[in-house]
Design goal:
Layout: H1 2-36, H2 40-61, H3 65-83, H4 89-95, H5 122-136, H6 151-176, H7 190-200, H8 204-209
Helix pairs in contact: 2-5, 3-5, 3-6
Length: about 210
């Protein structure tokens, strides 16, 4: 009898914790994120300000270089995933048997509009980058994470790694002829349509001669 009365109580506590966590943490946070979704420029300005504040804190404290290096490497991986297409063109080239059809972006106005599909969408990129900043800020408050390292080596290694990875990615872009940005669907001016219409219409002189 005692075991039967204790089991529901033990099972009820995790459920109550999940309910209160979703009610007081997840739902308000999701509402706040939904409000910030359309404000792309403002979101990235906030993230940029937080990044500058974090770098200033590292510079003023003269320590915690390893957490800072880990944060920069994480942001670099997110940025590379943001620039990488969702489907690798190299795999498509292998499936096309060397024909090259479907790899090129539209070059004429009558081509089908195909927006650039990213491996990491902009919204997820911003959310993960900002969340990493909030997570790394408390790390600078504990001396246990202040590991003594030679920080110029980390800076030089990060710069070399950034240059090598970006060079490789730019070569990949040039080889498969894609641009990691979508500027929206092409819009044609009304003047061009009017000019094309007037050029096909018969002139007054030809109508009088007839």
């Amino acid at each position: 009898m005692m075991e039967d009365t204790e089991e529901p109580v033990l099972q009820q506590k995790p459920r109550d914790f999940d309910f209160h966590f979703k009610r007081f943490v997840e739902r308000p946070l999701q509402v706040w994120l939904d409000r910030w979704t359309p404000h792309k420029i403002k979101r990235w300005i906030v993230t940029l300000v937080l990044t500058v504040l974090f770098d200033l804190r590292i510079f003023m404290l003269q320590g915690w270089y390893l957490p800072c290096y880990g944060l920069k490497m994480y942001h670099l991986n997110l940025f590379l995933a943001f620039l990488t297409p969702k489907i690798d063109p190299a795999l498509l080239a292998a499936e096309d048997n060397g024909d090259g059809d479907g790899l090129e972006l539209p070059t004429r106005h009558n081509d089908e509009f195909r927006p650039y599909m990213r491996r990491l969408p902009e919204w997820i990129f911003w959310k993960k980058a900002t969340r990493a900043l909030f997570i790394m800020f408390p790390f600078t408050c504990f001396d246990i994470f202040n590991l003594h390292v030679f920080w110029p080596f980390l800076v030089v290694y990060f710069i070399i790694l950034f240059c090598v990875t970006m060079k490789r990615h730019i070569k990949h872009m040039i080889r498969y002829r894609y641009v990691p940005f979508t500027w929206g669907k092409p819009k044609y001016a009304k003047e061009k349509e009017d000019q094309s219409a007037t050029s096909t219409a018969p002139s007054n002189g030809s109508a009088q001669q007839v």
